[in-house]
Specification:
Elements lengths: L7 E5 L6 H12 L2 E4 H10 L3 H10 L7 H13 L6 E4 L5 H10 L4 E6 L2 H9 L1 E4 L4 E4 L26 H24 L3 E5 L3 H13 L15
Parallel strand pairs: 1-3, 1-4, 2-3, 4-7
Antiparallel strand pairs: 5-6
Helix pairs in contact: 1-8, 2-3, 4-5, 6-7
Bound molecules: guanosine-5'-diphosphate and adenosine-5'-diphosphate.
Guanosine-5'-diphosphate binds next to helix 1, strand 6 and helix 8.
């Protein structure tokens, strides 16, 4: 029996472009392991680990965490996912991080959510999250079933400190200066697959169709109308 190679995928896009939202759909349909650098950092901040305390000072300023710390943290997690298909979300965010990742594994594909800055600024101020799971909600787009509580656990939802308008502007600047070059890095390698649009529900069917060429849909839902 020929065993298909494991998928090594990355999802990229500016803050608020829908990486977490799309990742949740990819997990549901294709059963991949999802590793979000932001979720991992927030978990560390909540537990007040050494990395968490250090990360908070950068995140609150809308700045990126230094490459060496971030790379070590993520590569260590990736090692534990050896036997699975996986999707990285939020990493790499600089060319140095992408180079370090390349030394460890061969990336197959990079999904880029190309959503205009004007659209995402207002999404972020309406974002609510369940920190323990990383589930994301939005008061207009995908509100929780009961206001202020997570659909699965019933625990309270919180707003991220770094979703304040002034911090959002800094994060968008950091994206332009430090993360956009990563798109070019992957484009040159022929790995970049960009999906442009202003609404996740319109972008998603294209991502779904693209991933179906790589992995089978393992969800129970009607694959003709995937959500
Ligand atoms: N209005 C609107 N909000 C969206 C859409 N897609 C995602 N969101 C919300 O926008 C916010 C940012 O999305 P998220 O997936 O967290 O983006 P990330 O920062 O790239 O991981 C969240 O509150 C989402 O629920 C959309 O098409 N329209
Ligand atoms: N790969 C990374 N390199 C450096 N900093 C990171 C990285 N991933 C996350 N961070 C830090 O964590 C913050 C939140 O990340 P994330 O949850 O991915 O935000 P968003 O999805 O809104 O872009 C970033 O603004 C940055 O300060």
């Amino acid at each position: 029996m020929v065993v298909p190679p494991l998928l090594r995928a990355v999802i990229m896009g500016p803050p608020g472009s829908g990486k977490g939202t799309v990742s949740a759909r990819i997990i549901k349909h294709f059963g991949v392991k999802h590793l979000s650098s932001g979720d991992l950092l927030r978990e560390n901040m909540q537990k007040k680990t050494e990395v968490g305390i250090l990360a908070k000072s950068y995140i609150d300023q809308g700045q990126l965490i230094p490459d060496d710390i971030m790379t070590q943290l993520m590569l260590n997690e990736i090692k534990g996912l050896d036997r699975y298909n996986w999707l990285l979300d939020g990493f790499p965010r600089t060319v140095a991080q992408a180079e370090a990742l390349d030394k460890e594994c061969d990336i197959d594909t990079v999904i880029d959510l190309d959503v205009p800055f004007e659209i995402i600024k207002c999404r972020l101020t309406a974002r609510w999250i369940h920190p323990a799971s990383g589930r994301v909600y939005n008061l207009e787009f995908n509100p929780p079933k009961v206001q202020g509580t997570d659909d699965v656990t019933g625990e309270p939802l919180v707003q991220r400190d770094d979703d304040k308008p002034e911090t959002v502007s800094k994060r968008l600047q950091a994206y332009d200066a430090q993360t956009k070059p990563v798109l070019e890095y992957y484009r040159k390698k022929g790995l970049l697959k960009s999906f442009s649009g202003t609404e996740t529900n319109k972008i998603w069917p294209h991502i779904y169709a693209f991933l179906q060429t790589k992995l089978p849909d393992v969800s129970q839902k009607d694959a003709a109308n995937p959500r």
